[in-house]
């Protein structure tokens, strides 16, 4: 007799494989299995008994099982299979993304796990009476169990029982009891004689502020929900969305012993404030943090804390949506519009969408929060699929006034290389005089996006990519931001020998330089990927901004996200117009969100009636298109108006959220190979697509058609129905795999980038 186990092995490209074992292993058990000449990890997905048939005997045996680790539960295993199926990847690849590497590479013996110490059984009043009276009649083992729970013997019968005297029995101890005792404990729990109590300080030391009426309403709605309940918490920047998350989490934890809450955030390294707020409220011991910046050891520890239930709150970036959380009762997705929730390689999942999937699976509330929701979520709220909760007021401070500075009418901007117009100059000087902070942002790092020769038209192009080399003045290099190619700035033009090479356009370094020239007395800091490469550099720079050691902060979108700056009263965007005219249909949505978020950094601690001398907070946009509807909506702080107009466009253009899309991406060093592969792919697709009503678009080069000498092309598929598209993709993927092409290809379901 042997048992056949279907195992999801940690190997990209592989689906479930069969292995044998002499005793059955519970589904969800982590195992080590042979694969070729190696040993790899895997998760048992199913187990069936089999007779000694030749097939069963021929199976390779499971080498080891991690039996000290509680098995991954059925809900998690379903999630794993759903991700693989929906995003068209092999299960083995999803395992690689979901489990920490150290868990996968260790031997079972090294894994000591701990269970929650703060879940305890306690006798109820009824239990004390009932059990106390009958204690004498029970076996020694039960007598011990009752004693462990602090049940007084018959000798104390005349004193009235007091549950406070009963001793707690930790859940972890209860698990190691004799099976018979465990059974009895379960019966007692059913009879109401003992209860499981959460002694975790769930709404710990830090007192929570009283909610404002709109916040209280939102919290009330979340708390009153039952079953799967998706909410869109639409709150202006600084309206106290985070406070609503904190109190919603706290309620869930109080209500159910051992309950867990998952909080997703786009970025953790940039927003240490968020972690701090959760730590202060719930205690660091009950918090697990999961993001890609952790060391492997840390990641394992935090993952185990979530898996064993020790962590009540799991705070993490997109990968945390795949965490094992056996008692998950609430999911929060902060800044739900943020595109970093979409994984851009391997299994290209959307953490926001998976959060909703998990919420539905478990029948729990999912709170999506944003000041600028994604159009998908906004529409879902408009059509009633999500419940809309609105926060219109800032919790403290006031919303900045948004002003547009017309660059076409500004004589100071005519001078070549001028970056700071009259209006912005006046606004900056005012802040400098009053000792307030200003924040300037633009989405280009480096000094200038390209170096050019005015005589012959030569441009600094990357030899390996279809992109310009960016001029970095600090070390006089030309760098490709796509492939990493780097070269020294040439002395003379490689085209004609001219000595007059000119930087064209502006990057953060150039703005920093211009500011330093114009305001020599100002303390200026720059925050972008270049200035924060060293570990901890970003944190220390943000700290000095918070400490008031910086007058003007220049940066990329890194400075616009989620920071609670207390002294910033001016935010300026330096000509973001490029975002208006991109070919990316999501360009306007992204630009609007980014400008609103940036505006949200100003005026967070300024009150309109406290009579202080502080400047009225404002956001200034230098633009050549002040009449553009997007900017008009920005001035009016009118996200709903903007969203409605965009949704009309999307519907007209047959774009998501009105249709569903998938992209086949293909790349190879040989351009011809890519073209050939996609032509074949198209041929295979036609007969599959037609009966399902899926629209096929011809293959085209990707937006960045060549990176590091690799040619990249793609082909778009579209359908009115998610299910039809899914069916089409599943059969198509099989046919594509059978091609055994040398081209690297992948299907991207619900793509965000083209
Ligand atoms: N009910 C309240 N009473 C007093 N202060 C509050 C209240 N709610 C929130 N705050 C404070 O207001 C500020 C903004 O709140 P919070 O950070 O929760 O807003 P947010 O909507 O999450 O902001 P953002 O959109 O910028 O991320 C914080 O300093 C917070 O402590
Ligand atoms: Zn390059």
UniProtKB/TrEMBL annotation:
The keyword DNA-binding applies. Coiled coil: none annotated. InterPro entries: DEAD/DEAH_box_helicase_dom, Helicase_ATP-bd, Helicase_C-like, P-loop_NTPase, PriA, PriA_3primeBD, PriA_3primeBD_sf, PriA_C. It comes from Thiomonas bhubaneswarensis. Its cofactor is Zn(2+). One of its GO terms (biological process) is DNA recombination. Keywords: ATP-binding, DNA replication, DNA-binding, Helicase, Hydrolase, Isomerase, Metal-binding, Nucleotide-binding, Primosome, Zinc. Zn(2+) 1 binds at residues 453, 456, 493, 496. Zn(2+) 2 binds at residues 462, 465, 480, 483. This is Replication restart protein PriA.
